[in-house]
Write a structure and sequence with these properties.
775 residues; globular; 37% helix; 25 helices; seven-stranded mixed β-sheet; alpha+beta
Length: 775
């Protein structure tokens, strides 16, 4: 059965003009509004009593009148009417003695403004104290007052959603017809006021939470229609949107400055768009079917000629020329990852000018998320056939202290003399296969300039701390989990990710979501015992003993402010394993003291007899994965051991791609270059690990014909396997390939790969020269 046409097209059909004339002949006293209602009823449109459908019908009637098809009744109000809101005679009395702690506010509640006196109070607050100085709402409306024993603290207002909103529509993914049908299910929070005299941290986010818990029922009771989505706008020139982030609203993008009605309201300021789904299956209710994800083998498309196009070729950067430029930059830089782009492009002037124009362009689409969009899509395809995928989070500091003219850098620490070190902090998420440890792609990259340390302030909301990025990155994994419902996701973090709010967020979010596996840093209080977490697990029953491989420890030279460490060879550590389900009490801070305790599983590993000079292993892992047997505990331990992949990736980024040697003059340009390097570093890792995990794979799967020819010349044999090809390239970088050497590492590969690509280029030039001579 064909889909029904949109309501506007249905109403404007020429044959409906006959129906309109018949309705007027039957009842000449019909007003224009009643005529629009009758037209909807006779056409049996869905929800024909809704304000939105009636307004659309009224516009269709006016269009018919313009075309001379019908003659409508005279307007009930032929001239413009002045609108005057009901107000109080005087200002709303200020709230008195409002505590600065949220939990101390007495009688805090939302009151729906329905009585005349309540409406006057709401209007007065918005007209006098809201920045817009306006109280008129559009379409279906709800008004709330924020009441307390201390007086009126503020108010909220809801109206009809924006008719056209690109970032919202792209986030939902609906078609124009679906938007037309379901737009009444979207409600816009057009007014949000906490009175200027009220100084109470966390009040705004708490009010948003109160609101989303009741608005669906209030709206359906009044209008007979249950809303599915809330939207709101934040003017970032005046506000940071912190309360929306704290209340788990989703930042979907930015407005275009065109107002609610599109081009007709052009000239408005550009604002951030925040969304909050009120139902778990929003897209399914709208009828949006996610596009099927076709699986992609990890080794597929990684050849030198085509891999950059596969990972960046479909980026939507607002200009196809920018996309082609990115592919060219990545292809040339990946051939020689350790050198500057000036060397990688062989001093080609036009290429170098294009590179710097790209890095320094004032273009909103060139943020890391946009540059990684295609690579993220390909990463999803590589996840498709995996049973379990690890989403590994970590942060790393990038030191640019020697770039004295670089703008917008932050403070990443102090050196031994007390001088501040300037640079950027990189918070990233790497997807890794749980089975074989292969990196599947860079899921998220968040680079920022950290501020100077503000000290530990218990009253500071987590949204104002660096640690909030761990929560944001975890929420990003929920989208991946929704896209691949048959794949299990585990979010893995080291001790920096031991944040109570992170576990609490995982508990509160509905639907399918990644599990958490975090190494504990804080010795937390437990509900069922007076002992704290580490002491309780140390006394848990012994589940068994296992052997863990400890990688080689690199030597670090000591500094006056930080002791060094000796270099140690790789070893096998014998550790005891214990596990237990625990109930962790919420920290007694302003942010978390009222939250319920967390039920988690804890796994404790301890090495009793560490060799001299080595630090004994002592891990305590907290997880939302059920652990009731030694087998399940060891599975979590194996997953956590895969976390080292992101440390290796950071090393390839810094030592192989040399991202700390970029010479750009702004943090924005640095981040663009680092984003491209991040994917180049991922490819280097995959090439090395594929040689270890699937050594029998034919070299032709990764390398093109010219590269295979050079490899065969160097190896002095034909039909090479991938393992042999990787060893040949690593030998160019200094790998000796002795029996005691094991597999080649990343450093030998990135050094050797640059020489290898130079040889391939010589072969290609020789072949082209020979063809020219023949011609």
């Amino acid at each position: 059965m064909p889909a029904a046409p949109p309501i506007k097209q249905t109403l404007e059909l020429p044959e409906n003009a006959i129906l309109v004339r018949q309705l007027l002949e039957r009842n000449p006293a019909l007003t224009r509004t009643r005529l629009a209602e009758e037209l909807c009823r006779h056409l049996k449109l869905r929800d024909c009593k809704g304000d939105w459908q009636i307004a659309t019908a009224a516009r269709a009637l006016r269009e018919m009148e313009t075309q001379g098809l019908v003659q409508l009744p005279a307007p009930a109000h032929p001239g413009p009417r002045s609108w005057s809101p009901r107000r109080l005679v005087q200002r709303v009395k200020p709230a008195s003695a409002v505590p600065e702690r949220l939990e101390a506010v007495q009688g805090l509640k939302l009151v729906e403004a329905t009585e005349p006196e309540q409406l006057r109070i709401w209007n007065e607050l918005m007209l006098r104290e809201h920045p817009l100085r306006a109280c008129r709402l559009v379409g279906r409306q709800l008004r709330y007052l924020l009441a307390s024993d201390h007086g009126w603290l503020g108010g909220l207002g809801f109206g009809s959603a924006a008719l056209y909103l690109e970032s919202r529509d792209q986030w939902i993914g609906w078609s124009p017809a679906q938007r037309t049908e379901h737009l009444p299910r979207v409600v816009n929070m057009t007014r949000f006021l906490v009175r200027p005299g009220v100084r109470c941290p966390n009040l705004a986010s708490h009010v948003l939470g109160l609101c989303v818990r009741r608005i669906a029922a209030d709206f359906e009771r009044r209008y007979g229609l249950a809303p599915w989505l809330l939207e709101s706008f934040v003017d970032t020139s005046a506000y940071a949107g912190t309360c929306y982030k704290a209340a788990n609203w989703i930042l979907a993008g930015h407005t275009k400055g065109r107002g609610r009605n599109g081009e007709r309201d052009a000239g408005q300021s550009i604002k951030e768009v925040y969304l909050y789904p009120l139902v778990d299956d929003l897209r399914a209710r709208v009828g949006v079917q996610p596009p099927p994800v076709e699986p992609l083998a990890p080794a597929s498309g990684l050849d030198a000629a085509g891999w950059a196009g596969q990972e960046f070729g479909d980026c939507e950067l607002g200009d196809a020329r920018l996309t082609r430029r990115v592919v060219k930059i990545v292809r040339e830089q990946s051939a020689q990852p350790s050198v500057s782009y000036a060397e990688a492009c062989h001093g080609e002037r036009d290429a170098l000018k294009g590179y710097y124009r790209f890095l320094n362009a004032e273009h909103d689409e060139l943020e890391p998320a946009s540059l990684l969009a295609t690579h993220r899509s390909q990463t999803l395809r590589r996840m498709k056939d995996r049973d379990t995928v690890l989403l590994i989070q970590d942060s790393s500091d990038l030191n640019f202290s020697t770039r004295t003219k670089c703008e917008d850098l932050g403070v990443i620490g102090t050196n031994q003399t007390g001088a501040q070190s300037r640079g950027l902090r990189l918070h990233s998420c790497l997807a890794v296969s749980a089975d074989d440890g292969l990196p599947l792609g860079v899921v998220r990259l968040d680079g920022y300039a950290p501020e100077s340390a503000k000290g530990k302030d218990p009253a500071r909301p987590i949204e104002e701390k660096d640690s909030h990025r761990w929560l944001v990155t975890y929420q990003d994994g929920i989208e991946l989990a929704a896209t691949l419902p048959d794949t299990r996701f585990i979010s893995v973090a080291d001790r920096e990710g031991d944040i109570f709010e992170l576990f609490d967020l995982q508990r509160r979010l509905p639907g399918k979501k990644p599990d958490l596996l975090v190494r504990a840093k804080c010795d937390r209080r437990l509900e069922e015992t007076e002992r704290k977490l580490f002491a309780e697990l140390a006394e848990a029953p012994l589940a068994g003993e296992v052997t863990l491989h400890v990688p080689r420890q690199r030597e670090k030279v000591g500094k006056p402010s930080k002791p060094g460490r000796p270099g140690l060879p790789a070893r096998e550590a014998q550790v005891e394993v214990r596990f237990k389900e625990v109930t962790i009490v919420a920290p007694q801070t302003v942010q978390t003291r009222d939250r319920a305790p967390l039920r988690l599983w804890a796994i404790y590993l301890e090495e009793k007899n560490a060799p001299a000079g080595a630090t004994a292993l002592r891990w305590l892992l907290l997880t939302t994965v059920q652990v009731v047997s030694l087998k399940q505990a060891l599975r979590c331990v194996r997953w956590y051991c895969r976390r080292w992949r992101i440390e290796e990736w950071h090393r390839v980024l810094k030592s192989g791609c040399k991202i700390e040697e970029h010479q750009n003059h702004s943090a924005e340009a640095l981040l663009r270059a680092i984003t491209l390097d991040a994917v180049i570093a991922w490819r280097i890792m995959v090439l090395v690990l594929l040689g270890r995990e699937v050594p029998g794979l034919p070299a032709e799967v990764i390398f093109d014909s010219d590269e295979c020819e050079v490899l065969e010349l160097l190896a002095k044999k034909r039909n090479l396997t991938l393992s042999t090809a990787i060893i040949v390239i690593a030998k160019l970088g200094g790998f000796l390939n002795r029996k005691c050497d094991g597999n080649p590492g990343y450093e030998c590969l990135w050094k050797g790969y640059a020489q290898f690509r130079a040889m391939v280029q010589i072969v290609g030039l020789s072949r082209r020269r020979a063809r020219g001579a023949d011609d």
